[in-house]
Amino acid sequence: MLDTEYAPADPRPDITCHHCQGRAEWIDCPTGGWWAHHTHPADGHDATPAA
């Protein structure tokens, strides 16, 4: 069992995908980053943050 009492809170707000309203999150990397679905949709569309 993991101890989550001291786990840091996610500083990013919940972002939804413009196409499916599913949760999207920013994947950070040293050369930039990209938006991805938390759970990838069956139709294969790319995550696009809703405005």
Describe the structure.
6% of the residues are buried. The protein has strands at residues 15-16, 23-29, 32-37. A hairpin with a 6-residue loop joins strand 1 and strand 2 (23-29). With 51 residues, the chain is mainly beta. The model has no long low-confidence stretch (mean pLDDT 77). The protein has a domain at 12-39. The radius of gyration is 13 Å and the shape is globular. It starts with 14 loop residues before the first strand and ends in a 14-residue tail after the last strand. Strands 1-2-3 form a three-stranded antiparallel sheet, with no helix packed on it.
Main sheet?
A: 3 strands, antiparallel
Mean pLDDT: 77
What class would the helix/strand composition place it in? mainly beta
Rg over C-alpha atoms, rounded to the nearest angstrom: 13 Å
Q: Give the percentage of residues in beta strands.
A: 25-35%
Question: What are its keywords?
Answer:
51 residues, mainly beta, three-stranded antiparallel sheet, 0% helix, 29% strand, globular
